[in-house]
Amino acid sequence: MPEFLKKALARGLTPGNVASWCTLEAMRRFGVLVGTLRLRAKAKLFGVKLGAGCTAHGPVGLMRWPGSAIVIGRGCSFISSWRRATAAAIGHPVRLRTFAPGARIEIGDGCQFTGASITCRSTAIAFGRNVLVGPGAVVTDSDFHKAWPVETRAVAPGMEADRPVSIGDGAWIGMHAIVLKGVAIGEGAVIGAGSVVTRDVPAFAVACGSPARVVSRRDAQGRRLDREGRQEADAHEPHACPHA
Ligand SMILES: CC(C)(COP(=O)(O)OP(=O)(O)OC[C@H]1O[C@@H](n2cnc3c(N)ncnc32)[C@H](O)[C@@H]1OP(=O)(O)O)[C@@H](O)C(=O)NCCC(=O)NCCS
After folding, report:
1. Percentage of residues in the chain with pLDDT exceeding 90?
2. Distance between CA atoms of 96 and 63, rounded to whole angstroms?
3. Which pairing describes strands 196-197 and 178-179: parallel, antiparallel, or unpaired?
4. pTM
5. Which of 114, 215, 223, 239 should be mutated for ligand 1, with most atoms under 8 A from CB?
């Protein structure tokens, strides 16, 4: 008996497991094929620049205002389907939207968006390379209404308060986080699930809560640093999730 079959049997290979795995795999491949074709067609239709090797699972909302730009780097992945998402929190498709002439969404190579919503009204939202954005996360450069005076709140756009947002290489925005106008998130930083980011977050920091505060600082390898930026004495090596 071949070695791989022995191993499979040892791991509980049954006809039910085989059928289940084949079905899931077929659904995954079909979902990516259809989603990617749709994404490419939409990108052409809406004038979105899409890099080579980008994939989508499920629909991706693209709306580019005339005179604005959405530029997506190479090898990005857009996940809008709960069949593909690892988290149970996916509530809507990935959406990328510009709202006024001159607005610009720029996405670096290798980014991954899962059910996230990016709305750039009039300035710029820039993602570096390999940024991860989790389910339900919202990133925006605008409040969309001028708060005062109350009488005109519903109709006054308050465009003058819009501010650009930048998210550094390798940053990770957790599920249902909200990144508000004018924020710069540093390289490799982590934003905790459900956080509301109102101020800049330094590189390799973990920021959580509402408003998001830095709860720990790391070096590029994930080793914990103290307040002065030195490696903590009892810092232990981070261990990788076996399913990552
Ligand atoms: C941000 C995160 C990765 C940090 O994990 P961690 O390094 O193990 O964090 P810790 O457990 O050391 O937490 C440090 C402190 O921050 C707090 N904290 C962690 N995550 C938080 C969050 N999302 N909101 C508020 N506070 C949070 C902890 O309670 C702790 O506070 P304490 O020191 O007062 O006890 C994790 O908390 C998180 O949010 N995971 C969700 C990731 C996600 O969204 N995945 C979806 C797929 S993309």
Report:
1. 73
2. 6
3. parallel
4. 0.89
5. 215
